[in-house]
């Protein structure tokens, strides 16, 4: 049986690009860094990595990628945003710079650096709908690094994961709307490939 390897780009202006390329390759995709508008035509899906959303916003403009990427998303290109990538995909951002732009592809309100100074970075195990609810599946280890959380979602956004306990209990940290997936946390750093596999299977469909 041949399994198709979809071509998945990783926006490579800034952030943890290599880790996503590695995780996607291990998840059955042909992964390739994206730096030029023309490269968008050759991919079936795109990952927007973690990093710094205000910097990424600037670089998208400098590299003439903002409008072509937004157009590709409007045309239905599947996308997965992790952390800063979630912020970039969202329609409404709280606590950002007034000049920061975002791609308006995911109908959520996101708060940047939401977990506060004391808990800038932390890890927890959580349930992820569509992944950890498989028979015998382990919970997912989620690593948060100056992460955003989702404060509001439109009715067609599905909540896939929330923080299970502690001061941020119940906060939304993974969502999907059609072809767009986003997590506040960084699955590319844990060696758990299940979020990337989930995205690659979204791209295949
Ligand atoms: N705090 C960063 C931002 O606002 C996101 C952090 C991350 O991607 N690890 O863009």
Detail the topology: elements first, then pairings:
Elements: E1 7-11, H1 17-26, E2 30-34, E3 45-48, H2 53-62, H3 66-74, E4 79-82, H4 84-89, E5 90-94, E6 106-111, E7 121-126, E8 140-145, E9 149-153, E10 158-162, E11 172-177, E12 180-183, H5 194-204
Bound molecules: glutamine.
Glutamine is lined by residues 50-53, 83-84, 87, 112-113, 145-146.
Can you tag this structure with a few keywords?
single chain, 205 residues, alpha/beta, Rossmann fold, 7-stranded mixed beta sheet, 3-stranded mixed beta sheet, 30% strand, binds glutamine
Tell me what the structure shows.
With 205 residues, this protein is an alpha/beta fold. It has one domain: 3-Layer(aba) Sandwich (Rossmann fold). It contains 5 helices and 12 strands. The chain has a 7-stranded mixed β-sheet with strand order 2-1-3-4-12-11-10. The longest helix has 11 residues, at 194-204. The protein binds glutamine (GLN). The site of glutamine has 11 residues, from helix 4.
Q: What Rg do the Cα atoms give?
A: 16 Å
Proportion in β-strands: 25-35%
- Could you state the CATH homologous superfamily? Class I glutamine amidotransferase (GATase) domain
Going by CATH, the architecture would be 3-Layer(aba) Sandwich
Q: Characterize the largest beta sheet: strand count, sense, and whether it forms a barrel.
A: 7 strands, mixed
CATH domain class: Alpha Beta
Task: Please write the string of helix (H) and strand (E) elements.
Answer: EHEEHHEHEEEEEEEEH
Lateral strand order in the biggest sheet: 2-1-3-4-12-11-10
Q: How many domains, in number, for the residues?
A: 1
Tally of DSSP β-strands: 12
Based on secondary structure, the structural category is: alpha/beta
Helix amount: 10-25%
Query: Which descriptor suits the 3D outline?
Result: globular
Counting H and I runs of at least 4 residues, what is the number of helices? 5
Spans where pLDDT lies below 50 across 5 or more residues: none
CATH topology: Rossmann fold
